[in-house]
Design a protein that fits this description.
By secondary structure, the protein is an all-beta fold. The protein is built from no helices and 11 strands.
Amino acid sequence: QVRLVESGGGSVQAGDSLRLSCSASGLPSSSYAMGWFRQVPGKEREFVATISWSTRISYHADSVKGRFTISRDNGKDQIYLQMNDLKPEDTARYYCAAAKILTTTNEYEFWGQGTQVTVSS
């Protein structure tokens, strides 16, 4: 059974930092690309960042480029999202996801339950 479990969310002030973690288990193979998405109630899920299994390729949404960084530790089956200089518009529920092919669309095969990030001004 595939499990993606996010952690590290919380309530912070604008300008603060947070690091989200995603623990992955049960994936059919070790070569899945991993991504982070976010969603605000009433809006569509938004791509944030993705990283290849090899970690050599990553993409970040323009809205977070320069502030957020995705990384992964395949030995620990962990995926991270370092979020710096947080802004109120970053407030959302953040989801970890796994896909066979690296993509910035939401066509990911497996999803976690999400972790809430709230940024106040």
